[in-house]
Amino acid sequence: MTWLPEGCASPDPKRLEEYWLAAGIALAPDRLPDHYQVRWIGLDHATTEEVIELIIAGDKTGTFSLPWLIEKTAQPVPAVGDCIILIDFGGRPRLLVRLTAIDCIEFGSVTAADTAIDGTPVRDLSIWIPLHTRYWNGLLEPFGLQVTANMPVLTEKFDLLHINELHD
Using CB atoms within 10 A of its CB, is residue 27 exposed (0-12), middle (13-18) or buried (19+)? Predict the structure, then answer.
């Protein structure tokens, strides 16, 4: 199963598969690869719902991940074309996105051009840097790591493919 940080509920594999199949039917199966990843974006219920709404509105068009966490948790390295089911705090599949561009930068080199893919509330570097420092330090701590200026960060642009209207 996909590694998820502590917080949200684990998704039900059956619900994930049902959503994947429904999205495939809605989009035409030839538009999707034969596999998907699962991620949770947010800190808690409220921020997860806010992030989902920002993606639906087209305000948030990408996300960020850490190669260090990918390596430590044995997750697949993101690649252009990957489809990701984004789950809510309750573990329910809510959105399907496809990665369209991935760049690797150092945390200390993040610019406003990089954070432009994030939601408006956190794009400003004076907000983005401390928010992500706290968040990522919490995820890295169990592995004896912490955020550094030269830590690699993946910027992952995506397109929203499908919204799960039946997420209850």
Answer: middle
CATH number of 21's domain: 3.10.400.10
Within a domain: 3:
no
Tell me, yes or no, whether 6 lies in a domain: no
Is the pLDDT at 165 greater than 80? The verdict is yes
Q: Do 81 and 99 meet the contact criterion of CB atoms below 8 Å apart?
A: yes
- For 84-103, the pLDDT digits (tens) are 999 998 999 999 999 999 99
Contact by Cβ (8 Å): 8, 90: yes
Residue 156, helix vs strand vs coil: strand
- Please report where in the chains the tokens 């697949």 appear, as a residue: 76
Q: Which residue has the tokens 């998704």?
A: 11
